[in-house]
Fold:
Amino acid sequence: TVMFVYLTFTPGFILIRMLGIRKLDTIKLLIFSVGLSIVLIMLIGTITNEILFLMGIPQPLSVFPFLLAVNIFIILGALFDSIREHSSKFMIFSNCKNFLSLFAIILPILSVVGTFWVNVMNSNIILLFTILMIAIFFIISIISEKFISKSFYFLVIFSTSLALLFHSSLISNYIYGARDGHLEYFVAKLTKENNYWNSSSYSYEIQYGRFNSMLSITVFPTIYSNALNVEIELIYKVIFPVIFAFTLLGLYKIWVENIGWKKTALIAAFLLMSQETFYSEMVWLARQMMAELFFALLILVIMDKNLKSSSAKIILIFFSFGLIVSHYAMALIFLFIVTAAWLYTSLSKKKPRNLDLIFIIIFAIIMFSWYIYV
Structure:
């Protein structure tokens, strides 16, 4: 657990501090830290993989080389930030007001216990109770703010989405579901067994080559599997759903900032997570789960009105890389959407602050360079 928190939050948080970003609210700081950490892990892992292999080290993605590289980045980043400015205190629950909101944390726990009960006792009674509790929480959140404060909607959304994802992903001890999920598992397992990502593997076979070129299902699960000392199966069943749950927080933040009503954004989030595809098919599409997180984060940064322009551009480049090396189709969809949006807004007066032609060109260059040469 400690290693998971360390890898998933610390590198991104350090980068945010290095960029001099100080005025982020709790939700943005949380999801930006997660997104940037994932990108840095894939980036540092890939650089370590290539350099050490050229130096003749046969297993460059094993625990020691990667942790050495990522710790060097974190230590140097922390020193850079401490020299420039003393760190400010950060308390994620500084505005706790009521107990019932925190009680939402029990939903993922119920889901885990329920799947265990299914696997051992062949009974889904606890999972049915969990789904009932989710419905009750949603109703209470909409009806009254006396029980669940608006400031804790983000916790309700995250806990609920995680409970729904776990109630599918933890069924059985094996990988099951969509065919793409098995192909993803294959390239992840191959990278893990070799502790090396060979970017030229399956260059003769288009389908396997596409999967193998995605860092989200090769380098990323290998690093987490080694660092957490767990099998690849658990990375797919636990880690990827946790990461995917942060996508809902990103969307919630987008809706709150642009619609203005937290309750409307809460309803929108519940509408999305209540779709069967969210908690069934998506659970076994790891690269798409990862890509959707970066998709949401990119839109959030583009529409952000408070980030400094220079900081926003750097963060956009990192998230762009994350999306490009996570899922090829979603990267193409994103490029089409932002290009169309830029063309439309160029003719109107409502142009997003962080969307310009330079960003679109940079995104296209990174995307086509990666897909052509990797």
